[in-house]
Amino acid sequence: MSATVLGALLGLSTAAGVWVVVAYALSRRRPALADRVDPYLRDLPEAPRMATEPAPSSRPTAVGWAIFGPSVRRIAGGVERVLGGGATIRRQLDRVGSALTLEQFRVQQALWGLGAFAATAGIGVLWSVRTAVSPLALLLLCAIAFAAGVVARDQALGRSVRHRERRMVEEFPTVTDLLALSVAAGEGPVAALERCVAVSQGELSDELRRVLAEIHTGTRISRALDDLSARTGVPSVARFAEALAVAIDRGTPLVDVLHAQAADVREASRHAMIEDGARREVAMMAPVVFLILPVTVLFAFFPGLVVLQLTSP
């Protein structure tokens, strides 16, 4: 190739590159069609959308849900038909203070099951590369993994409920004493509840904040407290709500009742701690009996056994 041809090719490629850069810069400076039309449409009202309808989004998760969402909902419907117990799940969601609906929880169960199914299938495929794996056995194992994922989400909800109720029991004496002090200082029950909610944080405070929100929206105080007693799974909180409702309706003394309930909960917590310590003490005997004691006996008798073997004819 001559120098003239090589120079012509290099000049042509350079000119093409410069033309591409300049064209791209000019196209970036030109406003898009949406930007040109938007000032004329900005004052128009938006199309009405249902409250449950999600807002349009281009995120990968939104796109994936738009594609696979109907299938996941059908799987969630199948889980609901097989397992049932919708009323129990709604009560547990209410006790845990979750904003999830039954359908959303079933969708989460389906997603957990599909995640376990995919993980088991992936492990099975990788294992089949090294050795022969029966497809029927792998399919059965994946089905078991799907069921385990669904059950695991249900168990996680149960653990959340127990953890939240345990926290409520721990917070109950402090909140009750604070409420009793506020009532003894001359405040009314609703004002005392507002003061307790304002200065405290926790699960029980969230429940009382929900009660106050219902009262402020027009619900009768006794009705809001009865709802608290019905939805909670803690007997002490239910008794507290019932006593507060009776005191508000009949005007009975409330301070002594609140102090007595706080003392009862503290005494019950002390007994529960003693029982838990006794159970843990028994559990601590297992490693002593089955691990430390055999090793001690072995160390004690092994030297004598070795001496007997060395001195025997």
From TrEMBL:
Pfam families: T2SSF. The chain crosses the membrane at residues 6-26, 110-129, 135-152, 288-310. One of its GO terms (cellular component) is plasma membrane. The keyword rRNA processing does not apply. It is found in: Cell membrane. It comes from the Bacteria. Residues 176-299 form the Type II secretion system protein GspF domain. Keywords: Cell membrane, Membrane, Transmembrane, Transmembrane helix. It is a multi-pass membrane protein. Its main location: membrane. InterPro entries: T2SS_GspF_dom (IPR018076). This is Type II secretion system F family protein.
